[in-house]
Structure formats: structure tokens, C-alpha cells
């Protein structure tokens, strides 16, 4: 995950001043984390690529509007999150669309890039113990979370952002991020406990 906002600000300034190649450098820096987030949200590679492409088109179209000191990553992740939300809303209104374009699995290479970490603590479970079936159950449960909880969980749990960074994207305080994560984990546990058991190692805890 790129961390130097000064580099982004320089590239945005160059883009504003007509050096279109600066957009390519922003793409090189941010395409991977943006694709990861979009894929986790919509769970389809082709759709994720389309949404990230639309995001970069918006960045170019709005290049003159970026103000000095803009937090590029916060602006971009916020925009991408809204694109994902609106796309899913559109799909719900057109259920016949994409029936043949089934949701893809998070395969082993995805897990190596962004490990499926434990959802109740900072520890990481043994992927072999977790197994593909449990990955699918967790994935399905995450897809059922409300937009604000899903976005917060993906940004923190999978993209590795700090509470402060997540808060800047979802427009809430650090305490608010903590509350959303608690609510997301509680909702996931409620959805999954009957399927994998309350003492499952996916939660990194034992209930006796």
C-alpha cells in the first residue's frame, strides 16, 4: 500500500498542469490496492477492474478540482467505495444481469497477497485449518454486511489501513471505526456461528 501522500500530491499537481503521464504513475502506485478493495467488495475480477478503471477516469476528469493538500488515497478509496455500492445497487435492480458471470473464489494467490486474517483479533489463523469452505462462508457473510460496515472491515482487515486512515475514508472518528469493526465482527459471528461453530479457530478464541 503506497504511503507517501507527498508523492501523490506531486503527481496530482503535474496532472493538473497537463502532464498526462502522471496519471500512469498514479495507476502504477494505486492500481493493486484499488483492485484488491473492489474485488473484495464485488467479488468478481472483471467487475472490479471496470470499477477501478472508472475511478481513474474520474480522477482524470477531476484533475483540475484537486486542491493543494488533498489526501489522495482517502478521496480515491471513498470514491471507489461509492462506485462499488452503486454498482451493487444497480445489480439488485437488474437481477437477470450477469447470471452467467458468477462470483469468483478468493484463491490461494489472493490469500497470499491479502491473507484472510482472524476477524476477532489481530492474529492470523492457519489457512490450511481454515480451508476453502470456511473462506467461502466468511466471504458470503461479508457480502451481506451493510455498506458502511463492509467498507470499514475490508479497509482495515484486508487492506491493512490504520483506524485513522480508515476514518478519513469513511468520514468518522477513530472511535467510530472501532465501533463499526465491532459491529461488523459481531454480525459476522452471528451469521457464521451456526455454520462453523462458536469455538471455531476462525475467531481466534475458544468458548469452552
Summarize the structure.
With 208 residues, the protein is mainly alpha-helical. The chain is 67% helix and 0% strand. It has 2 domains: 1-103, Rna Polymerase Sigma Factor, Chain: A (Orthogonal Bundle), CATH 1.10.1740; 105-195, Orthogonal Bundle (Arc Repressor Mutant, subunit A).
Description:
The chain is built from 9 helices and no strands. The chain has 208 residues and is mainly α. The chain has 2 domains: 1-103, RNA polymerase sigma factor, region 2, helix turn helix motif (Rna Polymerase Sigma Factor, Chain: A); 105-195, Arc Repressor Mutant, subunit A (Orthogonal Bundle). Helix 7 crosses helix 9 (174-196) and helix 8 (163-170) packs across helix 9. The longest helix has 23 residues, at 174-196. It is globular, with a radius of gyration of 18 Å. This is Sigma-70 family RNA polymerase sigma factor. Residues 26-93 form the RNA polymerase sigma-70 region domain. It holds the Pfam family Sigma70_r2. Keywords: DNA-binding, Sigma factor, Transcription, Transcription regulation.
The H/E string reads HHHHHHHHH
Overall pLDDT metric: 80
Structural class comes to mainly alpha
Question: What is the assigned CATH homologous superfamily of the largest domain?
Answer: RNA polymerase sigma factor, region 2, helix turn helix motif
- In the CATH scheme, what's the topology name of the largest domain? Rna Polymerase Sigma Factor, Chain: A
Amount of beta strand? under 5%
Task: Indicate the radius of gyration in whole angstroms.
Answer: 18 Å
For the largest beta-sheet, the strand count, sense and barrel status come to: none
Count of alpha/pi helices: 9
Tell me the overall shape: globular
As a percent range, the share of helical residues equals 55-70%
Low-confidence stretches: 108-129, 199-208
How many domains?
Answer: 2
**CATH A-level architecture of the largest domain:** Orthogonal Bundle
The count of β-strands is 0
Gap between N and C termini: 38 Å
CATH class of the largest domain: Mainly Alpha
Family: Belongs to the sigma-70 factor family. ECF subfamily.
Organism: Pelagicoccus albus
Domain RNA polymerase sigma factor 70 region 4 type: 138-188
Protein name: Sigma-70 family RNA polymerase sigma factor
Amino acid at each position: 500500500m503506497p504511503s507517501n501522500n507527498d508523492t501523490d500530491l506531486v503527481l496530482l499537481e503535474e496532472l493538473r498542469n497537463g502532464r498526462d503521464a502522471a496519471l500512469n504513475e498514479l495507476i502504477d502506485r494505486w492500481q493493486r490496492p484499488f483492485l484488491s478493495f473492489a474485488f473484495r467488495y464485488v467479488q468478481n475480477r472483471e467487475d472490479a477492474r471496470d470499477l477501478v478503471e472508472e475511478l481513474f477516469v474520474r480522477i482524470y476528469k477531476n484533475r483540475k478540482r484537486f486542491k493543494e493538500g488533498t489526501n489522495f488515497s482517502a478521496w480515491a478509496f471513498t470514491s471507489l467505495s461509492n462506485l462499488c455500492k452503486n454498482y451493487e445497487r444497480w445489480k439488485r435492480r437488474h437481477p437477470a444481469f450477469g447470471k452467467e458471470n458468477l462470483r469468483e473464489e478468493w484463491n490461494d494467490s489472493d490469500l497470499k497477497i491479502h491473507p484472510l486474517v482472524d476477524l476477532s483479533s489481530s492474529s492470523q489463523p492457519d489457512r490450511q485449518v481454515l480451508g476453502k469452505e470456511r473462506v467461502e462462508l466468511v466471504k458470503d457473510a461479508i457480502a451481506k454486511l451493510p455498506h458502511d460496515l463492509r467498507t470499514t472491515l475490508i479497509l482495515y482487515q484486508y487492506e491493512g489501513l490504520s483506524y485513522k486512515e480508515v476514518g478519513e475514508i469513511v468520514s468518522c472518528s477513530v472511535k467510530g471505526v472501532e465501533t463499526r469493526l465491532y459491529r461488523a465482527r459481531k454480525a459476522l459471528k452471528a451469521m457464521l456461528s451456526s455454520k462453523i461453530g462458536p469455538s471455531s479457530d476462525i475467531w481466534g478464541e475458544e468458548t469452552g
